[in-house]
Design brief:
The chain is of the alpha/beta class and 584 residues long. Helix content is 30%, strand content 22%. The strands form seven sheets. An eight-stranded mixed β-sheet has the order 7-6-5-3-4-8-9-19, sandwiched between helices. A five-stranded parallel β-sheet has the order 11-10-12-13-14, with helices on both faces. Strand 13, helix 15 and strand 14 form a beta-alpha-beta unit. Helix 4 crosses helix 5 and helix 11 crosses helix 12.
């Protein structure tokens, strides 16, 4: 036997990918400070640069820090203290960004809730967080209003969606939401943002000490079972990602712009779409409500140098009429993550990028909420077709046999596992599920088990081949969890059993839609009519992007040997199902 092969170290020991890291990364240590302090540290000599560009309203780093301090003073006056939780039903308007960092100054944390969620989910997430305070956009408040008697928040702060817009845009935006006055009856418990800030004048907020694993933010993700889980992000895990990108070798100029289209209530948006670009001293252009079909308009309007997206959004950009003939040489980094991309689409996109004079190929990465969104990266010319790049600085990625736990070798497929500074603290109030994902290996380290299958080649590049998880990902990257749909459908008296699976998006090369397969009671005569009623019920109670594309009856749902719904068999049977015949 070859002695080299016998003595060769494992992938996780060898870390062959580290040879690609810039020299500076070998000497700089990962930050040991709060996320606000790391933001300050990276911009201490750049106070004059623009930090936020909100549709033309420009806020410098100096002003950004002033606004953060004002918000911290106001929260302190309100009674928020170290260790408290504040729930957010909001998006990336400047005031929301101020509030997030202000709470970090106080040592408090954020419970980030997607305003598009259904009312019951919003209520559940607020109640489970034990938060005493809430921050909501005015346009999101009608949902909160419906459950305000149940959530028992001491104070609710309302951020006017249009507050920081330029004057003309603000007037237009306000005229379109005049109906909100029905809900916004301001009093001592319902406080408008300007009143909230004014109340804090003359107060000096304390600066909480740094605690590495202190909870900074909860962002919700899903899994194979149960409702969405709250991923607990910490100072160290969030900063680890920003630190990694700082020393990844990203080509950037002094006044480069970053287009933030990923919502900050997601881990991807919070870490990679907000904190990371601000720590790189970029001009962040927050887009609070991203409409995928208008991606090209945003590129034409702002001419960003850097952006992160999803495969489906990049595909939409490629087909955008607005930039069909534009010279896009101003784009340095067009990043893609949040979903795997087939090589055919990747080749098509890179050809398109070359035709439009984008210097570097598509910068693919891999991550998950449990890893503060990022575990691998491609940047500039560090690229390999079909790969999601190399492990981020401070991160170790390896491949393990999902059955035996044995570490695999180069080019051998298995479960992708990750360890390093960007790991979450755990799932909020979900100990058993945390222990299932965060497992201690024989090397004594805790590894995140991704549930994804892939391999690492001899150059250290990761390739993702598929998913173990039962999860449906739409063309726009939105993750749909079957249990949410199934829990609604099985409540119907006519339904004996139900299983939701993913069917291919017939209109696009990427993504799937959820389809509900139902086994009805034997006494149901008009199955088509009952399925239509179930479909209507789903449209009524589920969030828009979490609804089934159709409801299909079958005689019997197959079961596994353990008596569980055999969704794998159903997925194979219905994957290419022509659901258009059921569309109403």
């Amino acid at each position: 036997m070859n002695n080299d092969k016998m003595t060769r170290r494992s992938i996780s020991e060898e870390k062959i990918w580290s040879r690609y890291y810039p020299e500076a990364a070998k000497y700089e240590k990962a930050p040991k400070m709060k996320i606000l302090d790391y933001l300050k540290f990276n911009n201490k000599d750049k106070m004059h640069l623009t930090a936020l560009n909100y549709y033309g309203t420009k806020i410098t780093y100096k002003k950004l820090l002033q606004h953060i301090d004002e918000a911290a003073n106001a929260f302190h006056k309100l009674g928020v203290k170290e260790g408290d939780m504040v729930s957010f039903v909001a998006v990336a308007v400047p005031e929301c960004i101020y509030a997030v960092y202000a709470l970090n100054k106080l040592g408090a944390s954020c419970n980030m809730i997607d305003p598009r969620m259904d009312v019951e989910s919003i209520k559940r997430m607020i109640i489970e967080s034990d938060s005493r305070f809430l921050v909501s956009l005015d346009i999101s408040y009608p949902k909160v209003y419906k459950v305000k008697e149940d959530i028992e928040q001491e104070k609710t702060i309302i951020i006017p969606f249009a507050r920081s817009l330029p004057f003309i845009k603000r007037v237009v935006a306000n005229s379109s939401v005049s109906n909100l006055r029905t809900y916004l009856d301001y009093d001592n418990n319902l406080i408008k943002w300007d009143t909230f800030i004014a109340d804090g004048v003359g107060t000096k907020a304390p600066d909480a000490p740094y605690v590495g694993d202190r909870l900074v933010s909860i962002a919700y993700t899903g899994g194979t079972t149960g409702f969405p889980k709250g991923v607990m992000l910490t100072n160290d895990s969030i900063n680890a990602v920003a630190y990694s990108f700082k020393y990844a070798g990203l080509v950037q100029g002094k006044k480069d712009r970053f287009l933030g289209i990923i919502p900050i209530f997601s881990t991807y948006g919070f870490v990679c779409g907000m904190h990371m670009p601000l720590c790189l001293s970029l001009e962040l252009i927050p887009i609070p409500r991203f409409i995928p079909t208008e991606f090209g308009k945003l590129i034409k309007m702002f001419k960003p140098h850097h952006m992160i997206s999803t495969p489906a959004f990049v595909e939409l950009l490629m087909n955008s009429k607005e930039i069909r003939k534009m010279d896009l040489s101003f784009i340095t980094t067009l990043g893609s993550g949040g979903d795997t991309m087939n090589e055919g689409l990747e080749d098509k996109l890179n050809t398109w990028m070359k035709q439009h004079n984008i210097k570097y190929p598509l910068a693919q990465g891999y991550g998950m909420s449990e890893l503060s969104a990022a575990a691998t990266f491609s940047v500039n010319e560090l690229f390999k077709s079909g790969s999601v790049g190399i492990p981020s600085i401070g991160i170790t990625v390896s491949i393990f046999d999902p059955e035996t736990g044995e570490e695999k070798g180069y080019n051998e497929e298995g479960e992708i596992c990750v360890t390093g500074a960007s790991m979450m603290k755990g799932y909020f109030k979900r100990k058993e599920e945390t222990e299932n994902v965060m497992r201690k290996h024989a090397d004594g380290q805790v590894w995140i088990h991704s549930g994804d299958i892939g391999y690492i080649d001899e150059d250290g590049f990761l390739f993702v081949k598929g998913r173990i998880k039962r999860m449906i990902i739409r063309f726009d990257g939105h993750k749909v969890f079957p249990v949410n749909i199934e829990s609604v459908i099985v409540q119907e008296e006519t339904v004996k059993n139900c299983c939701v699976v993913g069917v291919n998006d017939r209109a696009r090369s990427q993504g799937q839609y959820p389809m509900a397969i139902v086994e009805l009671n034997e006494d149901v005569e008009n199955k088509e009519e009952v399925c239509k009623q179930i479909f209507d019920k789903c449209n009524e109670v589920l969030e828009e992007r979490g609804r089934p594309i159709c409801v299909v009856p079958i005689d019997q749902i197959p079961l596994t040997g353990q008596g569980k719904n055999d969704y794998k068999t159903l997925e194979k049977k219905f994957k290419k199902f022509d659901y258009t015949v059921y569309e109403k």
